[in-house]
Amino acid sequence: MAAFAELFRAGDFDAIRAMLAEDVELDLVNRLQWQGRDRITPYFTRYAAETKWRFAFGAVEGRPAMLVFDRDAMERPAHFVLVDWREERIAAIRDFLFAPYALESADWVRLEVA
Predict the structure, then answer these.
(1) What pTM does this model have?
(2) CATH of the domain at 99
(3) Which of 64, 95, 99, 100 could form a disulfide with 29 if both were Cys (CB 3.0 to 4.6 A apart)?
């Protein structure tokens, strides 16, 4: 998960795409659900074009997560992303961009990579 967050931070979406399972699932909570490596490509295109977010490795409710901060508000994440792995491949991405309320009562922490 730390590598996923670092690749987002670096804007290396080609490297992330290379890690996707063929049948990867994308859940943009409260917005859409897509399945398949080719089908979810627009997801990365949008993030690549956006400059208002900053990404960090962390945990939400004890689960490894990518925390997404607004560039001008780094004290609390705007939303977060969870990733499920299967044999070193990304099997599912659950992005809470359209469900920021999920952080209202959640325990979260920003983690440093050693």
Answers:
(1) 0.93
(2) 3.10.450.50
(3) 99
